[in-house]
Amino acid sequence: MKKLTDNLLFKVIIAIILGIALGLYLPEWFGRVVATFNFLFDQLLQFIIPLIIVGLIVPSIARLGKKAGNLLLATVAIAYGSTIFSGLSSYFISVNIFPELLQGHIQNVTVPDEAQKLTSYFRIEFEPFFDVLSGLVFAFMIGIGLSRIEGTYLKNVAIDFEGIINFLIEKLIIPLLPIFIFCIFYDMAYSGTVATILNVFVKIIGVIFLIHIGILVLLFVIAGAVSRQNPFRLLKGMLPAYFTALGTQSSAATIPVTLKQAKAIGVDEDIASFSVPLCATIHLAGSTLKIVACVVALMLMQGMSIDFLQMTGFIFMLGIAMIAAPGVPGGAIMAAIGIIASMLGFDSENQALMIALYIAMDSFGTACNVTGDGAIAVILDTLFKKREKGLI
User: Fold this and answer.
1) Three-state secondary structure along 70-89?
2) Helices within the chain (DSSP H only)
3) Whether the Cβ atoms of residue 247 and residue 185 lie closer than 8 Å to each other
4) Superfamily (CATH H level) for 2-388
5) pTM for this structure?
6) Residue 359 and residue 282 in contact, taking contact as beta carbons nearer than 8 Å
7) Alpha-carbon distance 297 to 228, whole Å?
8) Which 3 state secondary structure label does DSSP give 290?
């Protein structure tokens, strides 16, 4: 499995390049084959992701014993704090840079025309047994319960189920991910959706890209300071997860790679198996900073007033609302659009602009989310090892 993980970064990069290149030239019939695989694999991911969450989190909490409650609180606090900090940082940077950068674009932006879409030859839909949020709550309840009971039969069942999930990740999900990423980028290149949006919003996208890189570096500097390790070595170790997320556009779908890379940079297996699936749902630093920056840009373009207290309340609510986002591309903005409309007064036209701008950069926000999960795992691993040694 280590060899597979070592080669994954190369495979993902090749998949992205081939997807973009071939999407520009191959005929529609091939594109429909791509769309068929893309749909079927996406259905498989949506079915297995809740099972991955239950299969990894329950035995991890159970093995942690009485530490589980403290670890849960620490993970939630650090993840939510990172999300809020990213949102506020994005707000302050945006309100200081965008007014000058967007001069000449005020009230001069339109929604791109509907792009050509590839359709699959056939569809087989299979619904998951439960959704991601239900799986998360179930995993907490069962895991914490098992952590308080010694030598139960159910704990052994959970450990066996974990083995099944790990087998499926290693033998099924990881090998097919590069093909899935190829299909996503092929469809994007064929339809021209992203190129159209990038042509309109290139300045905003450039700033948001720099913000998310800055947030990532800061997260790993903090993780490096806490763990007394080289932050750039840690960040380099998480790059396969970063590039995988660029293709999948889903934190949940990238869990297998994020988990492997967290272990590769030295995080304890139980800590990694607990924190990575959990952070994939609750740590949304990249998505939050991107939504906040897009909101500020569109409010400036439309001549809307921007109030600091209103935006602060919006950011705190955003960090909570997006936890319910499904693990699919664009899920965060669909979960957030309700509070964008209710708290900021965006009408239907501005909501459409918001969705268009967000989807154009969905990959970068997701990549920031999952890579930051690695930094949180390092911090948690260090804190709980120190606690065991009585140093804190």
Assistant:
1) HHHHHHHHHHHHHHHHHHHH
2) 2-23, 28-64, 67-101, 132-147, 153-168, 174-191, 193-227, 231-237, 239-248, 255-264, 269-282, 285-301, 308-321, 331-344, 348-360, 362-388
3) yes
4) Sodium:dicarboxylate symporter (1.10.3860.10)
5) 0.66
6) no
7) 38
8) helix
Token pair in block for residue 111: 């929604």
CA distance 381 to 378: 5
328-369 tens-digit pLDDT = 555 567 667 767 877 887 776 677 667 667 766 777 888 888
- Give me 80's structure tokens: 């939510």
State both tokens at 288: 């939050």
Euclidean distance between CA atoms 218 and 213, whole angstroms? 9
Q: So what's the pLDDT on residue 91?
A: 93
Closest CA to 58 of 174, 130, 160: 160
Q: Classify residue 184 by burial, with Cβ atoms within 10 Å: 0-12, 13-18, 19+.
A: buried
**What residues does each domain of the chain span?**
2-388
What's the CA gap between 177 and 136, in Å, rounded?
23
Contacts of 169 (CB under 8 A, 6+ apart): 52, 256, 259
